[in-house]
Amino acid sequence: MPPRFITKTIHAYLDYPVALGLIAMPFLFGLGTSGPLAFWLSVVTGVAAFVLTVLTDHHLGVVRVLPYSLHLVVDGLVGVAFVAVPIVLGFSGLDFWYYVVLGLTVLAVVGLHQPEHQAAAT
Description:
Elements (H helix, E strand, L loop, with lengths): L7 H22 L6 H20 L12 H21 L4 H19 L4 H6 L1
């Protein structure tokens, strides 16, 4: 089993830049050659990720009404969706690789998350 080194604190610091990146990158990379969904999926997911982060119960959450465990589940589902959607919908070129690479990265971050009881023990 790989070492699990991504703590709740590290994850929280990643959330806001990732959300903003998901919003900005389709514009910067010119996504959408496979269709409008290839462009807007990232933007909408970025807005949703920003809201999720604001509402998550961690030190950078603003309202802190959603449990961190739910946040991790949502992240995992987004990772799976980002890997599956370009295959299922036939994205090509940069649209395809953008979502596959981001999806695998999100799954890696979730998979390398250090469980709370380990984080408290160290």
